[in-house]
Amino acid sequence: MQISQEAVGLEMSGGRQECSGCKKSITDRYLLKALDQYWHEDCLKCSCCDCRLGEVGSTLFSKANLLLCRRDYLRLFGTTGYCSACTKMIPAFEMVMRAKSNVYHLECFACQQCNHRFCVGDRFYLCDNKILCEYDYEERMDAIIKGKYGILYKDEQCLRLQ
Q1: Which residues lie below 8 Å from residue 152, measured CB to CB, with a gap of 6+?
Q2: Locate the LIM zinc-binding domain: which residues (predicted)?
Q3: Residue 128 and residue 84: Cα distance in Å, rounded?
Q4: CB atoms within 10 A of CB 160
Q5: What predicted TM-score, i.e. pTM, was given to this entire model?
Protein backbone atom coordinates (compact mmCIF):
# COMPACT_ATOMS: atom_id res chain seq x y z
CA MET A 1 0.00 0.00 0.00
CA GLN A 2 1.53 3.29 -1.11
CA ILE A 3 1.73 6.29 1.21
CA SER A 4 1.83 9.76 -0.27
CA GLN A 5 2.72 12.92 1.60
CA GLU A 6 2.30 16.12 -0.33
CA ALA A 7 2.11 19.86 0.19
CA VAL A 8 -0.97 21.68 -1.04
CA GLY A 9 -0.18 24.16 -3.80
CA LEU A 10 -1.93 27.20 -5.22
CA GLU A 11 -2.09 27.86 -8.95
CA MET A 12 -3.51 30.60 -11.08
CA SER A 13 -6.42 29.31 -13.11
CA GLY A 14 -5.38 29.07 -16.73
CA GLY A 15 -8.68 27.65 -17.92
CA ARG A 16 -11.56 25.67 -16.57
CA GLN A 17 -10.56 22.73 -14.42
CA GLU A 18 -12.81 20.11 -12.89
CA CYS A 19 -12.72 19.74 -9.10
CA SER A 20 -11.68 16.23 -8.08
CA GLY A 21 -13.99 16.43 -5.06
CA CYS A 22 -17.35 17.60 -6.41
CA LYS A 23 -16.65 17.12 -10.15
CA LYS A 24 -17.91 20.66 -10.87
CA SER A 25 -16.02 23.27 -12.82
CA ILE A 26 -13.66 25.49 -10.84
CA THR A 27 -14.36 29.11 -11.75
CA ASP A 28 -12.27 30.72 -9.00
CA ARG A 29 -9.27 32.83 -9.96
CA TYR A 30 -6.97 30.51 -8.00
CA LEU A 31 -7.30 26.79 -7.54
CA LEU A 32 -5.75 24.25 -5.23
CA LYS A 33 -3.58 21.49 -6.57
CA ALA A 34 -2.86 18.37 -4.54
CA LEU A 35 -1.98 14.84 -5.69
CA ASP A 36 -1.84 16.15 -9.28
CA GLN A 37 -5.53 17.03 -9.11
CA TYR A 38 -7.43 20.31 -8.80
CA TRP A 39 -9.81 21.15 -5.97
CA HIS A 40 -12.20 23.80 -4.69
CA GLU A 41 -11.00 25.06 -1.32
CA ASP A 42 -14.06 23.55 0.41
CA CYS A 43 -13.74 20.19 -1.37
CA LEU A 44 -10.22 19.30 -0.27
CA LYS A 45 -11.06 17.73 3.12
CA CYS A 46 -9.77 15.00 5.39
CA SER A 47 -11.65 11.75 4.77
CA CYS A 48 -11.92 11.14 8.54
CA CYS A 49 -12.58 14.41 10.34
CA ASP A 50 -13.67 16.63 7.41
CA CYS A 51 -11.18 19.35 8.33
CA ARG A 52 -10.14 21.50 5.40
CA LEU A 53 -6.79 20.58 3.88
CA GLY A 54 -6.68 23.55 1.54
CA GLU A 55 -4.34 25.77 3.48
CA VAL A 56 -1.48 26.58 1.10
CA GLY A 57 1.70 24.78 2.09
CA SER A 58 -0.05 22.47 4.56
CA THR A 59 0.66 18.77 4.33
CA LEU A 60 -1.87 16.12 3.47
CA PHE A 61 -1.47 12.37 3.42
CA SER A 62 -2.97 9.89 1.00
CA LYS A 63 -3.26 6.19 1.72
CA ALA A 64 -5.78 3.52 0.72
CA ASN A 65 -7.72 6.08 -1.36
CA LEU A 66 -8.12 8.35 1.67
CA LEU A 67 -7.06 11.99 1.94
CA LEU A 68 -5.96 12.57 5.52
CA CYS A 69 -4.77 15.37 7.75
CA ARG A 70 -1.59 14.70 9.70
CA ARG A 71 -3.44 13.97 12.96
CA ASP A 72 -5.72 11.32 11.40
CA TYR A 73 -2.90 9.79 9.38
CA LEU A 74 -0.83 9.27 12.53
CA ARG A 75 -3.89 8.03 14.45
CA LEU A 76 -4.72 5.45 11.77
CA PHE A 77 -1.32 4.45 10.46
CA GLY A 78 1.25 5.71 12.96
CA THR A 79 2.70 3.75 15.87
CA THR A 80 2.70 4.08 19.63
CA GLY A 81 6.00 2.26 19.83
CA TYR A 82 7.01 -1.33 20.44
CA CYS A 83 5.53 -3.73 22.97
CA SER A 84 7.91 -4.34 25.86
CA ALA A 85 6.82 -8.00 26.05
CA CYS A 86 6.65 -9.25 22.44
CA THR A 87 8.70 -6.41 20.83
CA LYS A 88 6.18 -6.08 17.98
CA MET A 89 4.99 -2.68 16.76
CA ILE A 90 1.90 -1.18 18.41
CA PRO A 91 -0.38 0.77 16.02
CA ALA A 92 -1.33 4.24 17.25
CA PHE A 93 -5.06 3.39 17.31
CA GLU A 94 -4.63 0.33 19.56
CA MET A 95 -5.41 0.38 23.29
CA VAL A 96 -2.31 -0.22 25.40
CA MET A 97 -1.24 -0.85 28.98
CA ARG A 98 1.65 1.10 30.47
CA ALA A 99 3.93 0.36 33.39
CA LYS A 100 6.45 3.12 34.00
CA SER A 101 8.03 3.75 30.57
CA ASN A 102 7.03 0.33 29.21
CA VAL A 103 4.14 -0.03 26.75
CA TYR A 104 2.27 -3.31 26.12
CA HIS A 105 -0.41 -4.71 23.82
CA LEU A 106 -3.44 -5.53 25.99
CA GLU A 107 -2.98 -9.24 25.28
CA CYS A 108 0.72 -9.06 26.24
CA PHE A 109 0.11 -7.42 29.60
CA ALA A 110 0.55 -10.56 31.70
CA CYS A 111 3.16 -12.15 33.94
CA GLN A 112 6.08 -12.95 31.68
CA GLN A 113 6.93 -15.99 33.78
CA CYS A 114 3.56 -17.83 34.05
CA ASN A 115 1.33 -15.80 31.65
CA HIS A 116 -1.15 -14.93 34.43
CA ARG A 117 -3.46 -12.14 33.16
CA PHE A 118 -3.77 -9.25 35.58
CA CYS A 119 -7.06 -7.88 36.90
CA VAL A 120 -7.82 -4.50 38.44
CA GLY A 121 -6.21 -4.37 41.89
CA ASP A 122 -3.60 -7.06 41.17
CA ARG A 123 -0.03 -6.31 42.16
CA PHE A 124 2.67 -6.80 39.60
CA TYR A 125 6.38 -6.14 39.65
CA LEU A 126 8.81 -4.81 37.06
CA CYS A 127 12.04 -6.82 37.28
CA ASP A 128 14.71 -6.42 34.61
CA ASN A 129 11.99 -4.73 32.51
CA LYS A 130 9.76 -7.81 32.74
CA ILE A 131 6.35 -7.93 34.40
CA LEU A 132 5.98 -10.53 37.13
CA CYS A 133 2.92 -11.49 39.16
CA GLU A 134 3.21 -11.38 42.93
CA TYR A 135 3.75 -15.16 43.20
CA ASP A 136 6.59 -15.26 40.64
CA TYR A 137 8.17 -12.16 42.14
CA GLU A 138 8.22 -13.81 45.58
CA GLU A 139 9.72 -16.96 44.04
CA ARG A 140 12.42 -14.80 42.48
CA MET A 141 13.13 -13.08 45.79
CA ASP A 142 13.38 -16.45 47.59
CA ALA A 143 15.86 -17.63 44.96
CA ILE A 144 17.91 -14.44 45.34
CA ILE A 145 17.98 -14.82 49.11
CA LYS A 146 19.15 -18.42 48.70
CA GLY A 147 21.82 -17.20 46.25
CA LYS A 148 20.46 -19.17 43.29
CA TYR A 149 19.26 -16.37 41.05
CA GLY A 150 21.09 -13.22 40.02
CA ILE A 151 21.13 -10.01 41.99
CA LEU A 152 18.42 -7.69 43.20
CA TYR A 153 18.29 -4.45 41.26
CA LYS A 154 17.45 -1.30 43.16
CA ASP A 155 15.00 -0.14 40.46
CA GLU A 156 12.62 -3.08 40.87
CA GLN A 157 9.23 -1.79 41.92
CA CYS A 158 5.83 -3.09 42.92
CA LEU A 159 2.97 -1.55 40.98
CA ARG A 160 -0.76 -2.06 41.39
CA LEU A 161 -3.15 -2.22 38.42
CA GLN A 162 -5.85 0.40 38.88
Answers
A1: 141, 144
A2: 17-79, 81-143
A3: 11
A4: 10
A5: 0.52
pLDDT in tens, 61-116: 888 878 888 888 888 887 778 999 999 988 877 888 988 888 999 999 999 999 99
Domain with CATH 2.10.110.10 in the chain: 3-76, 79-160
Architecture of the CATH domain 79-160: Ribbon (2.10)
H or E stretch at 30: strand 30-34
Q: Are 94 and 78 in contact (CB under 8 A)?
A: no
Q: In terms of CATH architecture, what is 3-76?
A: Ribbon (2.10)
Continuous segment of H or E residues that includes residue 71:
helix 70-77
Percent of the chain, pLDDT > 90? 22
Q: Are 39 and 18 in contact (CB under 8 A)?
A: no
